[in-house]
Amino acid sequence: MPGKKKTSSKRAPSKKKTALAPDTSIATLGKAKIPSPMPYCRFVDHDAKVDIHVREELDPNQDESLRLYFEKAGPREHTYFDPSKTKCAIVTCGGLCPGINDVIRAIVMEAHHNYNVAATLGIRFGLEGFMPEFGHNIWEMTPHDVSNIHLFGGTILGSSRGHQPPEGIVDALERMNISVVFCIGGDGTMKAAQKVQLECEARNLKISVIGIPKTIDNDINFVFQSFGFDSAVDAATQAVQCAHTEATGAYNGVGMVKLMGRESGFIAAQTTLAQREVNFVLVPEAPLELYGPKGIIPALARRIQQRHHAVIVVAEGAGQDLCKANGQTDASGNVMLGDICSILREEIKKYFKEQGIPFTLKFIDPSYIIRSIPANANDRVYCGFLGQHAVHAAMAGKTGMVVSKMRGHYIHLPLSLVTAKRRKLEINSDYWRAVMETTGQLAYRERDGERIDICD
What we know:
Blueprint (H helix, E strand, L loop, with lengths): L26 E2 L5 E2 L13 E6 L11 E7 L5 E2 L7 E6 L7 H15 L4 E5 L14 E3 L2 H4 L19 H10 L4 E6 L1 H16 L5 E6 L15 H20 L4 E7 L6 H9 L5 E3 L13 H12 L1 E7 L24 H15 L5 E5 L2 H6 L4 H19 L2 E2 L1 E6 L2 E6 H4 L11 H10 L17
Family: Belongs to the phosphofructokinase type A (PFKA) family.
Keywords: ATP-binding, Glycolysis, Kinase, Magnesium, Metal-binding, Nucleotide-binding, Transferase
GO cellular component, one term: cytoplasm
């Protein structure tokens, strides 16, 4: 008698499509006519382009890659602003991240030593610093002031969250006679910078607005590695190592580490690949089930019964559909997350007790330590380039853009592109498959011999 035919667990192939090419052009304030004061230089043509093929960055379901042309970063032979009459401002917003001070230092040093600008002003405590009602002082920054700040974490200027009206910010820029404003921050800051640029344009003000994208979650659209991410992964691996030590130091030990990642699981995934002692990794992009054939709790129990220890890495935004979130938002407009780690700890305790499995669980949340550390060597190099290229772009009269690195090239990206959506981890990718291979977590699921789709 023929055996029962098994049902394939493979997903039906998704319908492919072709994405529309986005606008990558960069706005300028006018023709650059003033010879650059750079004492030594290999200049880049004013409209020099870099051609890069992209596919998943636009839409993972499209068939073919698109060839996009991005403006190349670097010093131009002519500047739009007269350096001797140019005042710049730097503002840092949002949460802390390794490398902010390095970017500040690079901007101040480049503007002073290579362009001889009239002044570089530090705006204190984020966008609040532009608003008279907060009373924050303005800091005229010199190379001496910033000479050692890269040795410390955080931001020497201070930061804040919350929305400030673009009209008020532009009013302050006019009052202070500022020609260039450098905005260092994440997705919300880039959206605010875009509104400021549009307000300047509406008033016909010749003010350059340049963004330097900062997000420890690595979730800004078209910014494939934000500064501080490498340092954050370094610190996170140390926490995972501690969790592994705790787990192996007890019979049936479980170490759980909570990492940053509101909507994107890049830190959790990269840490898992860097510290190959993680047995389960949970990210916002991958569906999370507690029980059933795909349930994390029974899978953990099987792991414990077989190996007697386990390490779980949890991105803070994972499994939010299981949390009783109240829908409230923080000062930046982000939805306040539910505590998935508390739910996991309670459910693990309940299930293991019902199954008669003794265990010990140690929970580690290193989030604020990771955010506050100084940048490592790789990030310092990256921050230095970002700061220098931001000054080059501003002095050439570019505006409404951010500096970034893509496929080894430093480029200019329009603010409209980086604010279009949040960048997320693609779980139907070779990268995520490598993460699943590293953890082996799918091997502990209930299954009937069929292969498991890594997207499930």
